[in-house]
Design goal:
By secondary structure, the protein is of the alpha/beta class. The chain has two domains: 272 residues, 3-Layer(aba) Sandwich (Aldehyde Dehydrogenase, Chain A, domain 1); 187 residues, Aldehyde Dehydrogenase, Chain A, domain 2 (3-Layer(aba) Sandwich), CATH 3.40.309.10. It has 16 helices and 23 strands. The strands form six sheets. Strands 15-16-17-14-13-19-20 form a seven-stranded mixed beta sheet, with helices on both faces. A six-stranded mixed beta sheet has the order 10-9-8-11-12-22, with helices on both faces. Strand 13, helix 10 and strand 14 form a beta-alpha-beta unit. Helix 2 runs antiparallel to helix 4, helix 3 packs across helix 4 and helix 10 packs across helix 11. The radius of gyration is 25 Å and the shape is globular. It starts with a strand and ends in a 17-residue tail after the last strand. The protein binds nicotinamide-adenine-dinucleotide. The site of nicotinamide-adenine-dinucleotide has 26 residues, from helix 8.
Length: 499
């Protein structure tokens, strides 16, 4: 059995806690590796060593730090296929989708190359007689990234790139379900010239996370995962005086107006609802057609498209639409929620419950499901299912559809399909959700904008990547300097306006 490791001080280090988690191949259901789960002592030693390495790295000029990122970009491109292959084998997503996972992370590394510009402070010349004021963006020190299973390349890269280029040392605690790609990325960063110790990849579960939260050395925590854990980490981090941004779960609604192109809307829904087996925080899980006629026509178009979906292992070719879900427990949870939908009276229009794939009977495959006539009191509406299950909630009017999306506790992403500019503008302006698509089903902003949900989908003030990441991973120091020409004789006892 392959035994994975931690990445400490630029070396592979065996786990010493004696605790391990299984890493599956979700397509076959086989355990392909075991990953060590770090103890407090292992985590604290790695953090201490990162703190030592951070001193010189923080003092390295931003252009040199950016050059490491430039080389990192080339190396990721060089190894793209290998990274995507390992990613698919541990996560289960298709090979083209795995490349997309790496690519969307890579774009944040490309953005990070702009650090010398993004880290420039502010300067006021002659704020008073002989007085200049300037602000500096300084690294925080040692920061931690805690990441989920569903984007094992993209989200670790979102955490590492901006934090490192700002001059911090990073402790990355990736998901224990698919930890190999983050370990590969750490090796590439070393090859790109990152000094040893500046990035430590420490595997683990709740124990490792708690060691991060209790460490007085860690200055900031960037978390992505489910909402209960996001909230827990946000509260613990605040209690121990750390800066925190914690992104959680989602239930993304797509509103389909009567004037929308329904073929386009159906295509968009199928891709956004079932791609990556629905294991995306930006997946559309609720379709909200406005008006009975729109709903009937939409369902009529969705059913044949969903029945045609090709579900299979990533090795079965690039025309596979989606693969298995990540674990047997995830599969069981999805099927339990589907059953609750049936029991609570929703209409199961496409039933994937008996899905089985010859030769892969032990894999964690889930057939596609489509529900119609779902109501807001049902568990399948309230809960994030994180599987290939699309629920349709029929709304009578635009206002009712808007109110539905606004009343849900999650606020990550949403979309509207319409040909009417006024409706689209009104929707974008009024909706209380962080990322909005207009005729775009998965509105994930590009690297130079920022990514973040509202309500229970995000805790903390600043978003991920884009300019916000540079604010999150630095603190501002403001210097007021007065030179002799402006200094008057005698003490000054009152606050004065600058003259
Ligand atoms: P998860 O919350 O189970 O795990 C996320 C991380 O937290 C992992 O590193 C895990 O080891 C750690 N963790 C798990 N249980 C913990 C505990 N009790 N205490 C401390 N740490 C713990 O999430 P997941 O299943 O890996 O990922 C799927 C979830 O992530 C979904 O809810 C999805 O919507 C969400 N997600 C959100 C975004 C976003 O940007 N909002 C992006 C991707 C995924």
């Amino acid at each position: 059995m392959k035994e994975l490791y931690h990445w400490i001080d630029g070396k592979e280090v065996k786990g010493t806690s004696g605790r391990f988690a299984d890493v599956y191949n979700p397509a076959t259901g086989e355990v392909q590796a075991k990953v060590p789960l770090a103890s407090d002592a292992e985590m604290n030693a790695a953090i201490a060593s990162a703190a030592k390495a951070q001193v010189a790295w923080g003092a390295t000029n931003p252009q040199r730090r950016a050059r490491v990122m430039m080389r990192f970009v080339d190396l990721i491109n060089r190894d793209m296929d290998q990274l995507a292959e390992v990613l698919s084998s541990e996560h289960g997503k298709t090979f083209p989708d795995a490349k997309g996972d790496v690519q969307r992370g890579l774009e944040v590394i490309e953005f990070s190359i702009g650090a010398p510009h993004l880290l420039k402070g502010e300067f006021t010349d002659s704020a008073g007689p002989g007085i200049d004021i300037f602000s500096m963006r300084q690294p925080l020190g040692v920061v931690a990234g805690i990441t989920p299973f569903n984007f094992p390349a993209m989200i670790p890269l979102w955490k590492m790139g901006p934090a490192l280029v700002c001059g911090n040392a990073v402790i990355l605690k990736p998901s224990e379900r698919d930890p190999s790609v983050p370990l590969m990325l750490a090796k590439l960063l070393q090859e790109a010239g990152l000094p040893d110790g500046v990035l430590q990849v420490i595997n683990g579960d709740k124990g490792a996370v708690d060691a991060i939260l209790h460490s007085p050395v860690i200055q900031a925590v960037g978390f992505v995962g489910s909402t209960p854990i996001a909230q827990y980490i946000y509260e613990e981090a605040a209690r121990t005086g750390k800066r925190a941004q914690c992104f959680g779960g989602a239930k993304n609604h797509m509103i389909i107006m009567p004037d929308a192109d329904l073929d386009q809307a159906a295509d968009a829904l199928v891709g956004a609802g079932y791609g990556a087996a629905g294991e995306r925080c930006m997946a559309i899980s609720v379709a909200v057609p406005v008006g009975e006629k729109t709903a009937d026509a939409l369902i009529e178009r969705l059913v044949p498209r969903i029945e045609k979906l090709k579900v299979g292992p990533y090795t079965a070719g690039d025309d596979v639409d989606y693969g298995p879900v990540v674990t047997k427990a995830a599969k069981e949870n999805i099927l339990r929620l589907v059953q609750s939908g049936v029991d609570q009276g929703a209409e199961l229009v496409v039933d994937g419950r008996d899905f089985s794939l010859q030769g892969y009977e032990d894999g964690f495959f889930v057939g596609p499901h489509l529900f119609d006539r779902v109501t807001p009191d049902m568990d399948i509406y309230k809960t994030e299912i994180f599987g290939p299950v699309l629920s349709t909630v029929r709304a009578k009017t635009y206002e009712e559809a808007l109110d539905l999306a606004m009343s849900h506790e999650y606020g990550n992403g949403t979309a509207i399909f319409t040909r009417d500019g006024d409706t689209a503008r009104d929707f974008a302006s009024r909706i209380n959700i962080g990322m909005v698509g207009i005729n775009v089903p998965i509105p994930v902003p590009l690297a130079y904008h920022t990514f973040g949900g509202w309500k229970k989908s995000g805790f903390g003030d600043l978003n991920q990547h884009g300019p916000d990441a540079f604010r999150f991973y630095t603190r501002t120091k403001t210097v007021t300097a007065r030179w002799p020409s402006g200094i008057k004789e005698g003490g000054e006892f009152n606050f004065k306006a600058m003259d």
